[in-house]
């Protein structure tokens, strides 16, 4: 194993350096090659670092809110259902190195027990997000919002009320599983029979600062039916108000997402009122895209959109198809 690492590390450094140079200076074809090298770098480095790492069980690490960086532009990061701020930590670190101040928050009821989740509503989540946004707005030149899954819904909701600098929605579930899945009917039947639903907990690798190991998401063994109903109501109200969003918008979704239907991305792009909006597809990732095979590409897409000057003009609903295959630039 040590011999493999000694050989691999210089190769990984070369992949990373080549990718960064080509993305910054290359032509379209060269940048496409650079994105492929970036994808290779992310896959190999993750595979090497994952070996013999522990499962992180301490929920205090999952729930710890954070503020990183000292840039003049701030970014609020919102985690998904059943998770915590740690879910957004690696992306936050990536953006802080690019000159942004990043703030990761804990939604009410999370990183505790199923009973704690049951006692909160989607309005409680929304109020928390709005409070944190207003604090950042009072301190920084501009504030953007990035949300994953349910956090993506909350980011979109915030955009219906405030003129955000930018909105980035990652895997927001406007539709569950598939657009034709009878979510409402199934929920109606389920709540007559059960008070909670067992979760499927998976391990995901994180390399964040001094923290290295596997996270277990969701953090709870069961979701209360009341929490699922709260999410359903949040989905409904988000759909209704999408046309009120006017801020520059980036939507990132995986074609293989089996939690948030890929049709959700098309729906957001069609109904969001933003003139400046872009859709980026990932081809090989699960719902938890920030921990999967295309993590490096996702981070690159978000960073480039955040750095893009809105004075360049609106992108008018541009779709960036097959980010991995085509290597299309965001800007």
Give the helices and strands, then pairings:
Elements: H1 2-25, H2 28-50, H3 59-63, E1 66-68, E2 73-78, H4 89-97, E3 100-105, H5 114-118, H6 122-137, E4 142-148, H7 150-159, E5 167-170, H8 183-193, E6 196-198, E7 202-208, E8 211-217, E9 222-224, H9 225-241, E10 249-254, H10 263-271, E11 277-282, H11 295-307, E12 318-320, H12 323-326
Helix pairs in contact: 1-2, 6-7, 7-9, 8-9
From the structure above, extract its key features:
single chain; 331 residues; alpha/beta; Rossmann fold; 2 domains; two-stranded antiparallel ribbon; 12 helices; 12 strands; 44% helix; disordered C terminus
User: Span from first to last CA?
Assistant: 40 Å
> What is the C-level CATH assignment of the largest domain?
Alpha Beta
Task: Give the SSE order as H and E letters.
Answer: HHHEEHEHHEHEHEEEEHEHEHEH
Integer-rounded radius of gyration: 19 Å
Structural class of the helices, strands and pairings? alpha/beta
Unreliable spans are 1-9, 321-331
Percent strand: 15-25%
CATH level-four homologous superfamily name of the largest domain: Alpha/Beta hydrolase fold, catalytic domain
Overall average pLDDT: 85
The helix tally amounts to 12
Describe the largest sheet.
Answer: 8 strands, mixed
Total number of beta strands = 12
- CATH third-tier fold name of the largest domain: Rossmann fold
**How many independent structural domains?**
2
Per CATH, which architecture of the largest domain? 3-Layer(aba) Sandwich
Please list the strands of the largest sheet in the order they lie side by side. Answer: 1-3-2-4-5-10-11-12
User: Helical content, roughly?
Assistant: 40-55%
């Amino acid at each position: 194993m040590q011999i493999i690492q000694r050989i691999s590390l210089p190769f990984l450094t070369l992949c990373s350096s080549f990718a960064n140079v080509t993305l910054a200076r290359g032509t379209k074809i060269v940048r496409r090659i650079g994105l492929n090298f970036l994808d290779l770098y992310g896959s190999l480095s993750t595979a090497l670092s994952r070996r013999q790492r522990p499962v992180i069980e301490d929920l205090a690490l999952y729930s710890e809110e954070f503020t990183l960086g000292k840039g003049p532009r701030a970014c609020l990061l919102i985690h998904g259902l059943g998770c915590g701020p740690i879910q957004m930590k690696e992306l936050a670190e990536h953006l802080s190195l690019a000159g942004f101040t990043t703030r990761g928050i804990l939604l009410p009821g999370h990183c505790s027990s199923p009973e704690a989740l049951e006692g909160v509503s989607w309005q409680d989540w929304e109020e928390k997000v709005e409070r944190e946004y207003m604090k950042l707005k009072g301190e920084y030149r501009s504030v953007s919002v990035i949300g994953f899954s349910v956090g993506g819904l909350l980011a979109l909701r915030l955009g219906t009320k405030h003129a955000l600098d930018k909105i980035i929605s990652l895997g927001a579930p406007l539709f569950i599983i598939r657009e034709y899945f009878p979510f409402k009917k199934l929920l109606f039947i389920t709540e007559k029979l059960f008070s909670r639903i067992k979760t499927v907990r998976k391990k995901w690798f994180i390399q964040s600062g001094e923290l290295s190991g596997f996270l277990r998401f969701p953090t709870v063994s069961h979701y209360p039916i009341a929490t699922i109903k709260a999410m359903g109501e949040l989905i409904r109200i988000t759909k209704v108000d999408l046309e009120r969003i006017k801020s520059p918008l980036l939507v990132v979704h995986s074609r293989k997402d089996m939690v948030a239907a890929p049709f959700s991305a098309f729906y957001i792009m069609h109904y969001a009122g933003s003139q400046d909006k872009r859709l980026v597809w990932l081809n090989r990732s699960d719902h938890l895209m920030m921990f999967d095979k295309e993590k490096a590409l996702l981070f690159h897409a978000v960073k480039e959109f955040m750095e893009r000057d809105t004075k360049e003009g609106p992108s008018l609903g541009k779709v960036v198809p097959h980010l991995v295959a085509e290597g299309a630039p965001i800007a």
